[in-house]
Write a structure and sequence with these properties.
- This is Gamma-glutamylcyclotransferase AIG2-like domain-containing protein.
- It holds the Pfam family GGACT.
- 12% of the residues lie in helices and 59% in strands.
- The chain has 82 residues and is mainly beta.
- The chain has one domain: Hypothetical upf0131 protein ytfp (Roll), CATH 3.10.490.10.
- A four-stranded antiparallel β-sheet has the order 2-1-3-4, with no helix packed on it.
- β3 and β4 form a beta hairpin.
- The longest helix has 10 residues.
- The model has no long low-confidence stretch (mean pLDDT 89).
């Protein structure tokens, strides 16, 4: 099986919130996104993945615009993530 990445831990994106601002008829549901919102935080699992997998995800998740953000891991370390 091909490497699917390495889980780095749980991280927090500060000053953003989770939102559902689009509707997709394909699965009859909302599309999750993050939106700038001072004072709010979004938490999630942080994975390190190969460039080939990033390209594959960009195709699969065609509705999103990828951008670089600073994430604080539970350890306190700050990492740059897409």
């Amino acid at each position: 099986m091909k490497n699917q990445g390495t889980r780095k831990g749980i991280g927090t994106l500060k000053d953003y919130m989770l939102g559902f601002n689009s509707w997709i008829n394909v699965w009859d549901g909302g599309v999750a996104t993050i939106m700038k919102k001072p004072g709010r935080n979004v938490m999630g699992a942080i994975w390190e993945i190969d460039l080939d997998l990033i390209k594959s995800l960009d195709i699969q998740e065609a509705y999103y615009n990828r951008f670089l953000v600073n994430i604080e891991l539970d350890s306190g370390e700050i990492v740059k993530c897409y």
